[in-house]
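Example with several molecule types.
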Amino acid sequence: MRDSFNEDLIALLPNLRRFALSLCRRGDLADDLVQITAERAFAAKDRFDPSTRLDAWLFRILRNAWIDHARRTTTQGTQVELDDAPDARLVDGVRDVEAVLMLRKTEAAMAELPEDQREVMMLVCVDELTYKEAAEVIGVPIGTVMSRLARARLALAAKLGIK
Amino acid sequence: MTIADETLMAFADGQLAPDEAARIAAAMASGPTVAARVEQFAQSRRALRDAFGAPPPVPDALTARIRAMAEADARQRTGDSGSANVVNLAARRRLVPIWQLPIAASIALAVGFAAGWSGAPGDPRGGGLALASLDDPALESVLATEKAGARVRIGEDAEVSLIASFLGPDGALCREFEHAAGGKGMVAVACHRGAAWTVDFAVATPAPDTEGYVPASSLDALDAWLNASEAGPPLSEAEETAALNALR
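Resulting structure tokens for the full complex:
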């Protein structure tokens, strides 16, 4: 029986890169993080339980790689660029002007959120992890995920004028 | 009594247990406020999903590199690589991307052993390692004081990067570091025993590929050594600081 780990991982590269971008906001660094994540994932493949979500497992590895990087660059005074317009083209074939405006506002609102809130938003609302899965990726209690998420969504709703 | 935001959010996300969800549904029927709050959570989630949708495609070069990695991994697992030992790379070893390493040309470092080993783990001889700066007090000072993640210039053109600290099976403090001087680079592990540092392991680092990555395979030897030597996991920042202080 062939295991699909390798194919599944490659199929998830876009999701990994998107999560990486949401953390570091730089295309080149996101690529490096994805590559490191893949290296470590292959190395740790035997420790992955195939009955669990591969993307959640990979997000955790990626997030740890991001923390490693952040720890190692603070002493060198490297500043992470805050890029308000990520490389990703978020809108494909959207004609409706109002919808486009809403998408732009959402992007901008997300960029304004603190990193830990933006992170839970990506994992739960975009990558559709459960609260428990997101908690395992980040390494915090579920309650923490929920309170960050609630605060983030209320802030987003306020910025987007959702009443 | 007001229902907590998190509860309404969980309801909107379908993350509430059925009996709690039924209670919230009943509360929604009692007036518009609860429903409006639930709707805020639902709409914010929808806005995010619409804004992000399917992720954009990944640059071809990156996909190609990772495909190559997958193929190499598959070959290694089925034993096609021809190596006598199929090594399980320890995930605890941090692989270092190019932004952390000085860009080095291909180098040859005399380490005394053909495979790059400098001796059995815990071997105090250091295996005849021709690490010129082994007796260098500046390097020893760096090993004794700098934290993981630090990068320090020593001498005229040598640079040392501290990667991780861990405890050897004999309880000795071991430090993994990279050393670059005169265009040559190496990854090494030095352990502190008695009052001295000995280099237990070292391997030359080859030139990175054109994309700027030192290939994972070049650090196979280090990972194999870490596995074989039963090195402990990397110390946390606090543990490392305590271990360094204990050296004094």
